[in-house]
Specification:
Two copies of one chain form a homodimer. The first copy, chain A, is an alpha+beta fold. Chain A is 37% helix and 19% strand.
Chain lengths: 476, 476
């Protein structure tokens, strides 16, 4: 970490001169070189906690050639460059902590080619994930990864963070759909990372190295995704549990019985209650004795089979201490439940200053993880609201500041988080399932990795970006 | 390539002294330091063409600690080390072209932990893939990747080559199942590449970088695989086509209709005919006018649905010029058809000196690929037998020497292969789908990659193996 810090100090902290700006105006034209207060403030934050790191300038290129010219110049002049998608990240990955240039990718907003014959799409990174999904759906094609922010996040940001979402449990995460990437290197060279094929044993897998590398290895300018045929039907169940730990236990029981739902989400009572207040919905009754819910979706092309599966799953969860299962089969009811689930993060944020941890463990260890979180909360004096993709063992732990003193928040809590991550790793898990390391999890990387592993990663970073201009201060 | 060649020349070509042997005997005991003729010859070849590269010594370690001691020593003394699994590779990846040490991994033959609760298995790399699959199946668990050599190949070799097999079309390849690897670096350090979780956004994806890296980045000593619930039923169809190109066209029609078979294999007439002779089976009638077959499997847990799918697929292929579809629903009949398919490679090998290319293109480009292959055969005077995983766009092109002169074989044919790979890349494909680059495809890497891409890969190699002791002369 220290190396990295000194390295940052030696860089030009956003010290962009008129000469630099003149060059950028030549490359992307005057209109796309932004130094006004509003844009600098916009690019200083994302959806992570309450962080602010202003760039010196925001550039809005629209082609790989423009990105190439910018990177070549910045590399020569050692100017930090941080790519930004829609700014919905939850680990501070898009924040220009070393100042310099923010590459705002919003003009890369075209879906370039829908290849129906090959079940592939080539898209630019600045396309909103949900718009991409809906455009594809109209063609009978399905791109499953669906982060909670899908209505506003960019597909490029999803690639940078290897995002997941509820459907990952059945369909996998972003990395499972990326076939090939066009990427501009720090040197300005433009490469493709692979080929547009379903199987590839040709050299090192640069594609998979770049997915999830958080903009530290290059700037992705085109994305080739594999697609699957659209799925026709789904059913949704909401199961209220009187014990949160039992809800976690039930998750594994579903899989052990041989079922793979298309979503299996866990929400602690607070998560659902706060979300209902936030979206002003009274759609779900919430008796006093309910500690948590599971939201379980099954999908497929045969409605009879879905009903059979849903009933079988209902039978499995009924072995636990639950209240009445809600079967949502109307479109409106499903939408309402999914909205409640998707809005939990925003609801918590609107409620209190908070930190969100993105723990992930082997699925069967979830009950133990939840027990540990609550015990650590008692020990370190924090209240947590837990929810997330239980089917993947991916539990978001929202720690709310509420009544905690500033001193405890800044000094005692990090020790508690350190303890939490240590337990997560002991359970076979790791410190981020889908949000990335970015800025806020960086101090904990030594828990997940040995110095030897970190050194390998740092050296790989150097291979791609010798001068460390790309998103400096992130991951390591 | 030249750099690499000079680099090799500067290494100790198998110049193992008594001092070295004494050290090795200390590490793995006398019994596992082999210098006898039989073992040196055994480790000089794999299943690739007719290649022979003898090591100076074969070591059979049985623990990561032993591998670590060996690598540390070899790194210090610049002794080449090439790992070897079962020797079933098809690109010469396990051949010690620079001499030195072969690490024979056969003693790493234990399945260490079947974690039924988490649908995971931790295994050593020297376990035979089919034995692993059968052990897991007995526990209700399913590890899908099934290369043709599954009865003899090692799971470690599958990881090294990112192997596929017929089921990849529905279930993905090896990389889609590897969660975490224990690996010994050239320096002797032992690391894990990731964590035992289904989602991971923590640092660079070293796991996916190592899968398919052909033993050039480290020696894998433990493998953690994710598993899925066992599937109960399957049905198999054999469809005889009067036009091979139409058979390729039918492949895509099946997917466009929304079906994803669990296998969709293509075999040219020669492939099936030679395989029938090789295994002395008369199981399939082969009328004179049949040019190719598709072998189509569907699997699932609901037999009624499988019959419906199989009938629908039969309906789709009937739009082409086909003979009668064979529905194989007895276990014996299915076994017979799969044996014929799996033995094609060996059958071709027993028939003639040959070269096997492992082309892969976006699926819908298969008919064009087949047409190109035959046209190049006419132009360069070679006969080819094509078969493979058509559902993935992965076509194995077996070029048989037959009547070709030695001069044409050695001088003219490589030009034809170069033309073939150039066309494959033009179609959006690449030069190896599942066999790896190893030794034999190395001369063609410049077709798939630019110098910038190759330089990135070479530098990554250096990060892991500064002195280039691990499997030198492969990939680059």
């Amino acid at each position: 970490m220290n190396d990295c810090f000194y390295h940052l100090c030696s860089m030009i902290y956003g010290n962009i001169t008129e000469v630099h700006l003149a060059y950028f105006r030549q490359v992307v034209s005057m209109a796309y070189v932004l130094t006004d207060e509003e844009n600098l403030i916009r690019c200083a934050s994302d959806h992570t906690e309450d962080l602010h790191h202003r760039p010196a300038v925001v550039l809005q290129p629209a082609s790989a050639d423009e990105v190439s010219s910018i990177l070549r110049y910045c590399n020569e002049h050692r100017i930090p460059v941080t790519a930004r998608g829609a700014g919905t990240g939850l680990s501070g990955g898009a924040l220009p902590v070393a100042g310099g240039v923010v590459l705002d990718m919003k003009r890369f907003n075209r879906i370039l080619h829908i290849d129906k014959r090959n079940f592939q799409v080539t898209t630019e990174p600045g396309v909103i994930t949900q718009e991409l999904q809906e455009t594809l759906k109209a063609e009978g094609l399905f791109y499953p990864p669906d982060p909670a922010s899908k209505g506003s996040c960019f597909i490029g940001g999803n690639v940078a963070e290897n995002s997941g979402g509820p459907r990952a449990v059945k369909y996998g995460v972003v990395k499972d759909y990326v076939l090939n990437l066009e990427m501009v290197l720090a040197s300005g060279e433009v490469i493709w990372t692979g080929a547009n094929v379903l199987k590839n044993a040709t050299g090192y897998n640069l594609t998979q190295l770049v997915v999830g590398s958080e903009g530290t290895l290059g700037i992705v300018t085109k994305i080739v995704l594999r697609l699957i045929p659209a799925v026709k039907h789904d059913l949704l169940l909401l199961v209220p549990f009187r014990s949160a730990v039992q809800a976690c236990e039930a998750v594994n029981a579903v899989f052990l019985a041989g079922y793979t739902p298309s979503a299996l989400e866990f929400m602690e009572r607070d998560a659902l209650e706060w979300s209902m207040k936030y979206v002003q919905s009274a759609g779900v009754s919430l008796p006093d004795d309910i500690q948590a819910h599971l939201l379980i979706e099954v999908d497929g092309n045969n409605m009879d089979e879905l009903y059979r599966d849903a009933e079988a799953i209902a039978g499995i969860v009924q072995q636990y201490d639950i209240d009445e299962v809600l079967f949502a089969d109307s479109h409106e009811q499903k939408q309402m439940l999914w909205t409640l689930r998707r809005k939990v993060g925003e609801a918590v944020k609107s409620n209190s200053i908070y930190k969100e941890e993105d723990t992930v463990v082997p699925r069967a260890e979830l009950p133990e993880l939840l027990t540990i979180i609550k015990a650590l909360g008692n020990e370190y004096g924090f209240h947590s609201v837990c929810y997330g993709h239980a089917g993947d063992g991916n539990l978001h732990v929202n720690i709310v500041k509420a009544g905690m003193s500033d001193d405890d928040w800044h000094n005692k809590l990090p020790q508690g988080i350190r303890r939490l991550f240590t337990e997560v790793v002991r359970l076979g898990g790791t410190i981020s399932g889908e949000h990335g390391i970015g800025l806020v999890q960086r101090p904990y990387m030594d828990i997940a990795f040995s110095e030897v592993q970190l050194q390998l990663m740092r050296q790989i970073k150097q291979v791609f970006d010798l001068n460390g201009i790309l998103n400096p201060g992130k991951i390591f």
